[in-house]
Write a structure and sequence with these properties.
Chain lengths: 302, 170
């Protein structure tokens, strides 16, 4: 196919001016989009979700070489440490067997006490396993793309975890791909509870490795090494998910090291779990919904 | 009256610039197994926009750059408009400095890119900060800028091969 090239003379001059005008117009359009960006329009959400599915095959293909290299180094490292790891794992299994027996006993006791007190515990929900296929955030966003979407039952706001603890929550959902905002992202807010003190706080990401704790009642009650868990008070994430450990307490604030290593995410689990939210689904009456939920949630929060 | 001669341009010449800019945007999805690298990985799209704006500005329309910028925002999850502003700024810089940058040595072109990429990085940082209504640390962006400038010759040489392989107007 061959097409006409640039014209000459006056027409070329007109086109040049039109191009200059188009440049300024597009700059203004970009700025307008940015200014309106705080108001998350439904079309923008649909566009983002649709694009996730479109770029998923590319993301998957581009992740393969890196995964192969990473897996190869991992297998070499594992082989070298196999004997030592085997001995360590055997010792750990024995120790865990003892703890499991004690935990079974505690769970049975706990169940009996709950029956006596009439407390209902929230449903833990089902877990959807998903592979991390890309980490395209750049300098100002901490997010990953995972290979699971609407088709698998993923919905916006769901908690994402690994065996170690909380990773983040789902912010965009495509048909078979979703975006997960990590707890280290600047826009991440997580209601947490600090293990030893029982203090409640909001953990906020800072686009750095260590998120900060804000809105603490008595910050003196928090010490290095304290465990941080989700409290469930944000009405989004289920309570009791391990988040990390307090590693810094000082004038610069209180910082938490996430339990999950965000740099080496391979597989994650998305918790398909309904939290008692403030707004009922469309068509459902608030009064009918709020009463049973409140009583159900009382026992769920630590 | 004698009509002006009509030159014919091969379709490959017309689509290659925008196509390579979009491919560069999708390179953001490349997964590098180095902890922390993806947060500061080079901004390939700025490199592609700069190269084509210098070599073949007539085949890199502003609308194409705008769409590539929006695509970058959608891929990265950054506020819509931030990527488009940064890429258009880089293109606008080349447009303003066309005489200085065209037909010069590669070193001059690299130096010009360092300025264009700095402009794009600062605008991107300011745009995201404006959208989040927050003061962002400039260090991840600064680190990305250094890596982008350092990686420029590699992508520029690849794009140069594509540009030289383009059929000339008949």
């Amino acid at each position: 196919m061959a097409t006409r090239a640039r014209p000459s003379g006056r027409l070329w001059l007109v086109r040049l001016w039109l191009q200059r005008f188009a440049f300024l117009l597009l700059l203004a359009a970009a700025f307008a989009l940015l200014a309106l960006g705080r108001v998350e329009a439904p079309w923008a959400g649909k566009l983002r979700a649709g694009l996730l599915d479109a770029i998923a095959p590319v993301a998957h293909a581009l992740s393969l070489p890196g995964r192969a290299v990473s897996d190869w180094f991992g297998s070499v490292k594992d082989t070298a440490q196999l004997q030592r790891q085997n001995a360590e794992l055997k010792a750990e299994i024995e120790s865990l067997k003892l703890r499991l027996t004690a935990l079974d006993e505690l769970a049975r006791e706990n169940g009996e006490f709950r029956k006596l007190l009439g407390i209902q515990i929230h449903d833990e929900g089902r877990h959807i396993a998903a592979r991390v296929i890309a980490d395209p955030g750049g300098p100002y966003v901490r997010s990953v793309l995972v290979r699971a979407g609407h088709r698998d039952g993923v919905r916006k706001g769901r908690a994402v975890i690994t065996a170690q603890g909380l990773v983040g929550r789902v912010t965009e959902v495509g048909e078979f791909t979703s975006r997960v905002m990590l707890i280290t992202d600047l826009n991440s807010r997580t209601a947490v509870i600090i293990g030893n003190s029982g203090e409640r706080a909001i953990m906020t990401g800072a686009n750095a490795d260590l998120p900060r704790l804000l809105h603490l009642g008595r910050s003196g009650a928090v010490a290095k090494g304290d465990k941080v868990m989700t409290s469930g008070h944000d009405g989004i994430l289920p309570p009791g998910l391990p988040v990390g450990d307090v590693v810094e307490v000082g004038p610069g604030g209180i910082r938490v090291r996430p339990a999950v290593d965000m740099q080496s995410l391979g597989f994650v689990r998305i918790i398909d779990h309904d939290m008692p939210g403030l707004l009922p689904p469309p068509g459902e009456k608030t009064a009918e919904r709020a009463a049973p939920r409140r009583s159900r949630y009382d026992g769920g929060s630590p | 009256m004698i009509a002006a001669p009509v030159r014919r341009v091969h379709w490959y010449t017309q689509i290659a610039p925008v196509a390579t800019v979009i491919a560069a945007v999708l390179l953001d999805l490349l997964w590098i197994p180095v902890p922390g690298f993806n947060a500061v990985a080079p901004a390939f799209a700025v490199m592609a926009v700069y190269c084509w704006a210098v070599w073949r500005p007539e085949y890199l329309p502003y609308t194409g750059v705008f769409v590539a910028g929006l695509l970058e925002d959608l891929v990265r999850g950054t506020p819509l408009g931030a990527g488009a502003l940064a890429l258009l700024a880089a293109q606008g810089f080349v447009w303003a400095q066309q005489r200085l940058l065209r037909s010069r040595s590669f070193e001059v072109m690299w130096l010009g890119f360092a300025v264009a990429a700095l402009l794009a990085a600062v605008i991107s940082w300011a745009a995201v900060a404006f959208s989040y209504r927050a003061v962002l640390s400039p260090w991840p962006g600064a680190m990305q800028y250094v890596l982008t400038v350092a990686a420029f010759p590699a992508l520029a040489l690849l794009l140069m091969r594509i540009e030289r392989g383009m059929p000339r107007p008949a």
